[in-house]
Design brief:
heterodimer; A: globular; B: 420 residues; alpha/beta; 4-stranded parallel β-sheet; 22 helices; 50% helix
């Protein structure tokens, strides 16, 4: 488990280094969600929309959109593939993203197309810790993250 | 008459560094009698309590700057005009205005308050480089990505891709009679993406040959113009005309966003192109008898968006739709039409002061609750975005719905009524 400040990122997951989308390999599928740091930077999530099951999405293209206190915009796929499952619970209750990032707050499951190639540039294992630390510093310097005492992030 | 191409060779907007105000606007500033009527109409003033956010206050501060700049003593002693502090105080007020234009209805000497406030912003932002926080980022987002949020513009049609029943060829159409110009807020904000989804479904049900520009639709330019950066809007306006009218061949452009609609009607060099808001399109379907409604057991009210109502005078079409939809269960808000309250989300204010947006919106949601309606129908994605947030924060049971959503939910097309 990587940790910087109050942010915990399991190092068995794969992370898109810019979008803070995590990917978990589960048999034939890849489950995705937003990591603890990304959620905290975005703020309270108010709305989420996700593409329907069966839709094909390329890596780096949007599979959904999200509106939070400090973010409005697309959620980008960490891998290419077909959407195999959509989390209806998070559509009905987007706040799950803020409170249970890695379990009930997952977003979609992809059936990947080029998995080996697509995960090559995702952050994983021992690389997660230094990347997370650098992200915290950069976001704080750019004022994209509230001060620690003002943050209410898990 | 100039063709579109010829018109584009001329700059659309004057350079505020050369002449920030028109002769009429200078006269208007002189004509202000400080009667304070505009204060009664100003929601930002009610929230902030600072006269400088009202037109009267803005004019007073700007007149003082004129006087100081042109005083004989200053000229004799060759002092540089005015103090930075005086400009800063003036600037704060000008950028806390939501540009709702409500004060224009109240002004007894007929000052065109909204265009005067925009000219003031032009002078500050463009001629004096006094931009409010984050407006530079919004400007860069529009210039670099083509949308106000700064997200990849190739994802602009994502809201359509969320539909299970999206026609296969819709996003690949290269020509269509009707162009649906969706706008940034509806395209990117999941809080209101049901609006373009509903309006697109209505257009398709009505058998309209409709197309989208998808990633080639750029911001209409409205946030730049009202932010005081009109020169920067010329490029996006030119692009949308080239893509939407010249390449796409659209004869009609439809909108669900009143600000996009306003911008196209006021600032786009067009000839022979019909422009329509969704409320006008739906009202035409109702008048022609093609769209009827199953009577819902719900009380509806309607909130006039500033750019659609005061901006363009579109008051009756949405009411024609709602009277057909709800009959006696349609109630007017107090106030409504010309005196309608602002949702707080106008004038780019959300970019630098989201708290002010919420506080202004609080007055609207209070009026909605007082009306006794269970549904407030709106005709603007930004109004819906702010209002549903405000209603939710109050724990209100009133639901906000766009007019396209209401028409789709309760409407029956007479040519396929048997299918339902």
């Amino acid at each position: 488990m990587a940790q910087a400040k109050e942010f915990h990122l399991p190092d068995d997951l794969y992370y898109d280094r810019k979008e803070h989308i995590w990917a978990r390999l589960e048999g034939e599928g890849v489950r995705t969600g937003l990591d603890a740091f990304g959620v905290c930077a975005a703020g309270t999530v108010a709305y989420v929309k996700l593409s329907p099951v069966g839709r094909q999405v390329q890596k780096g293209r949007a599979f959904g959109s999200m509106e939070a206190g400090k973010y409005v915009g697309p959620l980008k796929a960490p891998v290419s593939g077909t959407i195999a499952a959509v989390n209806r619970e998070v559509l009905a209750n987007p706040g799950l993203l803020n409170v249970d990032h890695y379990e009930r707050g997952w977003l979609v499951v992809f059936t990947p197309r080029n998995l080996a190639q697509d995960i090559a540039d995702l952050v994983h294992g021992p690389d997660v810790q230094p990347w997370l630390e650098a992200e915290v510093v950069e976001y704080e310097q750019k004022g994209m993250l509230k001060k620690k005492e003002e943050r209410q992030c898990k | 008459m100039a063709t579109v191409t010829e018109a584009q060779s001329q700059p659309l907007f004057a350079d505020p560094r050369e002449r920030p105000f028109t002769a009429r606007q200078l006269l208007e500033m002189d004509a202000c009698t400080r009667c304070g009527e505009c204060l009664r109409a100003c929601d930002s003033f009610r929230v902030k309590g600072d006269e400088g956010v009202s037109l009267m206050g803005m004019i007073r501060r700007r007149r003082r700057l004129f006087r100081e700049d042109g005083s004989l003593l200053r000229k004799l002693f060759r002092r540089d005009g005015t103090s930075d502090e005086a400009w800063s105080r003036y600037w704060e007020g000008v950028f806390d205005c939501t540009l709702c234009g409500r004060c224009e209805v109240y002004c007894p000497v007929g000052i065109k308050t909204r265009s005067l406030a925009i000219a003031m912003r032009q002078e500050l932002a463009t001629a004096r480089c006094m931009l409010p926080p984050n407006l530079d980022r919004a400007r860069d987002a529009v210039v670099e990505e083509g949308n106000i949020f700064g997200y990849p513009n190739q994802e602009r049609a994502l809201w359509a891709e969320f539909l299970d029943d999206l026609p296969a060829d819709l996003l690949n159409k290269e020509r269509a009679d009707v162009l649906y110009f969706v706008g940034c807020v509806s395209s990117f904000s999941p809080a209101v993406q049901e609006i373009p989804q509903a309006f697109l479904r209505l257009l398709l049900k009505a058998g309209v040959d409709v197309g989208l520009l998808a990633g080639e639709e750029w911001c209409c330019g409205f946030p730049l113009i009202v932010g005081g950066l009109a020169k920067e809007a010329e490029r996006v306006i030119r692009h949308n005309v080239e893509e939407g009218i010249q390449r796409f061949g659209a004869k009609t452009v439809v909108f669900n966003c009143p600000s996009c609609y306003y911008t196209w009607r006021r600032y786009y060099p067009l000839e022979g192109v019909r422009l329509m808001h969704s409320a006008e399109f739906i009202a035409e379907l109702v008048r022609s008898g093609r769209l009827k409604f199953r009577a819902p057991e719900t009380v509806f009210t309607y909130h006039d968006p500033c750019d659609l109502g005061r901006g363009l005078g579109v008051y009756d079409p949405p009411r024609q739709v709602l009277r057909a939809l709800a009959g006696d269960a349609f109630v007017e808000l107090t106030p409504s039409r010309e005196r309608s309250l602002c949702c707080g989300g106008g004038g780019d204010v959300e970019i630098w002061d989201p708290e002010l947006v919420g506080e202004v919106n609080n007055m609207l949601t209070s009026a909605v609750e007082k009306s006794g309606a269970q549904v407030v129908v709106q005709g603007c994605p930004q109004c819906k975005r702010t209002t549903q947030r405000g209603l939710s924060a109050k724990g209100s049971g009133v639901r906000s719905m766009d007019i396209a959503e209401a028409a789709l939910t309760y409407g029956i097309f007479t040519d396929d009524a048997g299918d339902d």
